[in-house]
Amino acid sequence: MTAGEDFKELYDDYLRKVETQLECIVKDKHPESMYAPFHYLITGGGKRIRPVLAMICAGAVGGNPDDALDCGVAIELLHNFTLVHDDIMDRSPLRRNRQTVHEKWNEASAILTGDVMIGFAYNLLPNSKQHARSDEIYKTFTRGLIEVCEGQAYDMDFNEKKDVSLIDYLNMIDKKTAKLLETAAMIGGTIGMGSNEELNSLQTYANCLGIAFQVQDDLLDLTAEQAELGKRIGQDLFEGKKTFLIIKAIEKAKDENDKNLLNEFVNNNGLMNENQLPQMIDLFTRLNVFDDAVSFADSYFNKAKNSLANLKENQYTQMLHWLVDTLDKRKK
Q1: Residues β-bridged to residue 95
Q2: Domain limits at 316?
Q3: pLDDT truncated to tens, each residue of the chain (332 aa)?
Q4: CATH number at residue 130
């Protein structure tokens, strides 16, 4: 068995533990009107990168990965809280190839489901009797919650802002995507009693991983198969999102027809009809914007790997390298 196969087996083992824990949270809970949407959301699949990352990072600093399971599940609940609320704000009909919670039930149920998830998440964090650094863990978790909400606010502001720069975009995805990965890595490292230097390395790793992951998501919105992606191809463009692809295209466009199409997208807050999607894909292809996204994501994946140099090498730091390579090759 290769090292990659070993890491995949270990990842899947952690994944099973996370799924089991998630299932237990809502078992036999009432009222049905709140816990049915809760159960539906957390059993709808997902990569579970954040909870597994917390477990790996605990091991990377010499701790026991299983000690980070509860905190990892708490971060996964926080992540799903953001998803259910984001879907309402974006009016998204699909999530992971299934109806979103607000579509299957209603907005009130979806809001309540998201709210109660935060309560369950905090309940999973250790108290001072359970871990010597519980205060640090609470502060890191709360900071992650605040920053991901700030990221969503920036994302919503971009709907009205016509001139979103690459710096604006990176600040938004730093908060909306990278911070939760940072939260997972930092809490995992804290559970494992990592030093400040080790935590700084894990924080940089997770931040770079998150930025690369989001740019890759922007790319997959147009290049993945719908069955793999779990939502309509081009959904970001129909919703008017100022993605990496749009920002780079606006920077590079010289042809008047290209500029007009991009201006129409910005002024209308999204594509107006299905016929415009092939035109936009053609524009991105001609301007090499897809290649720009791949190169940008790769540069951050490499930064993530390089940030691990200060950590003592063990199977878990090797697994963090493997995780970068795995995400770099993902198709959904």
Answers
A1: 98
A2: 3-328
A3: 577 889 999 999 999 999 999 999 988 899 999 999 999 999 888 889 999 999 999 999 999 999 999 999 999 999 999 999 999 998 888 888 899 999 999 999 999 999 999 999 999 999 999 999 999 999 999 999 999 999 999 999 998 898 999 999 999 999 999 999 999 999 999 999 999 999 999 999 999 999 999 999 999 999 887 555 566 789 899 989 999 999 999 999 999 999 999 999 999 999 988 999 999 999 999 999 999 999 999 999 999 999 999 999 999 999 999 999 999 988 77
A4: 1.10.600.10
Q: How many domains does the chain have?
A: 1
Q: What is the DSSP string of 74-140?
A: HHHHHHHHHHHHHHHHHT-SEETTEE-HHHHS-HHHHHHHHHHHHHHHHHHS--TTT-TTHHHHHHH
Letter for the amino acid at 151? G
Q: Cβ neighbours of residue 175 under 8 Å, at least 6 residues apart? A: 147, 148, 150, 151, 154
